[in-house]
Amino acid sequence: MNNTNNYLWWQKNIIYQIYPRSFQDSNGDGVGDLRGIRQRLDYLEWLGVEVIWISPIFQSPMADFGYDISDYRGIHPLFGSMDDFEELLSEVHQRGMKLLLDLVPNHTSDQHPWFLEAKSSRDNPKRDWYIWHDAREDGSPPNNWLSVFGGSGWEWDTTTQQYYYHAFLKEQPDLNWRNPDVQQAMLDVMRFWLDKGVDGFRVDVMWHMIKDQQFRDNPQNPDYDPREITFRQLVPTYSTDQPEVHDIVRMMRQLTDQYSERVIIGEIYLPVQRLVIYYGQDNQGAHLPFNFQLLTLPWDPERIAATIDEYEGVLPANSWPNWVLSNHDKIRIASRVGIEQAKVAAMLLLTLRGTPTLYYGDELGMRDVPIPQEEVHDPQGLNMPDLNASRDPARTPMQWDHSPYAGFSEVRPWLRVAHNYQRVNVLHQRDDPFSMLNYYRKLIQLRQKEPALHVGNYIPVHANHQIISYIRQSEGVRFFILLNLTHRPCYFKSEHEEIRGKVVLATEIEREGTYLTGSIELGGDEGIIVKLD
Ligand code: NOJ
Questions:
Q1: How much is the pTM?
Q2: Superfamily assignment of 4-107+180-444 in CATH?
Q3: 452-532: what fold?
Q4: In what order do the strands lie in the sheet with 162-165?
Q5: Rounded Cα–Cα distance for residues 337 and 354 (Å)
Q6: How confident is the model over 173-200, as pLDDT tens digits?
Q7: How do the domains of the chain map onto residue ranges?
Q8: Up-side HSE of residue 316: CA atoms within 13 Å toward CB?
Q9: Using CA atoms, how far apart are residues 342 and 302, in angstroms rounded to an integer?
Q10: Quick check: helix, strand or coil at residue 281?
Q11: Annotation marks residue 300 as catalytic
Q12: Residue 3 vs residue 80, higher pLDDT
């Protein structure tokens, strides 16, 4: 039943997210690029990751660091040329690896020719490609929808005397996905990259793509906490997750299915019951709607265990799970749960059932880097300075070695390097058997070697206020995973079945190879993987 041959590459492998500005600079301009990524493929292969997802590399005025695209078919010169891209893709494939691109279909840059045309006059043929609306009688915006990056979601256009809608920056006008020409134009973009051979897309803000046709006001959020971004003041009931979005996702899927073994991953922040609808009827929607629950839940073992069970329970038949621990929009895992818990978190990510996504640098234990106010780049941080909302701290240069600028660049990088880079870097950690990097590598290799860990069943065992434990099983091979999510020692005694077996991997290397029977004691921040007899 769990024969690995029955599973596809995007089910069996680990996705590694590269934020291209910050991975490796090859041309001395302080910004990472495609040739830089190519130079580091040996590292990724050594680490054992086989699928790379690169955040946007397209032409863009960079108001939102590439998530504001002005040409979907062009590579931004900061990252290189189309030749560089093709060389990277071909080398990735030669190594048996896969490459995913970021598709940003919800909005374009305000400098995209489509928008320049649309805003040139009310009767321009591209006018309806975006979302325009008259002002209310008093001149105010048509409804109360907010921008994720602060303030109203509506921007007044003085030339044509209407508002346009932007879920993010005013430099990122939302496309009107109800317009069939928009649908075709974006499918053409997908076709362009699929024809080049890319293995799939991570689709930006998939749940935003269609808005309420009546433009009704969003309701107030009774749970709003003023420490959160202002967007959370309202519940985006009418501006996101509309039923018609699923028709669009299906369209994207149908196109992708014309190619062999490509994948669509949806970026979707929704409660799990609504998230799983994005798999589509009969799994004809996104292959993997990103499951962000580990990014947002409190680090509480009982809640996490209940969340895993709930997710396993609501997954539609034959759909494939996935888990994410960090990304370029959120606090890094080592900063969120603390460096002491980072190994436990990695063990959780890499032993759960479903495709894991690993964010570059987490394998070193990179933490969020404090960026002085005057160096903040992220528009979310700049627009809401009092909320500490900048995403820059999680986007700092990869720490490769102890040379100046951590081997990321020969010049001062666009964002400062962590001050601990001389200690926390790839070169240093590679030689240290106790390092985070070697721990990650062992976890990745064990997961990839053992079908029980990459495709096996998930069987919950026990959770309490300190621990989570479960079994992964395939064809008679069983692994027992026990994680202590607290700093205090904990004690485990199974009531239902005898745990007997050898520890094959542990946060504390000294435990590896030991044989366990009956009750188990773990120190604070410890986790073990036991191969059961
Ligand atoms: C989600 C992306 O992950 C984020 O970085 C970006 O700012 C918004 N979408 C807008 O595209």
A1: 0.98
A2: Glycosidases (3.20.20.80)
A3: Immunoglobulin-like (2.60.40)
A4: 132-133, 162-165, 154-157
A5: 22
A6: 999 999 999 999 999 999 999 999 999 9
A7: 4-107+180-444, 113-165, 452-532
A8: 18
A9: 18
A10: helix
A11: no
A12: 80
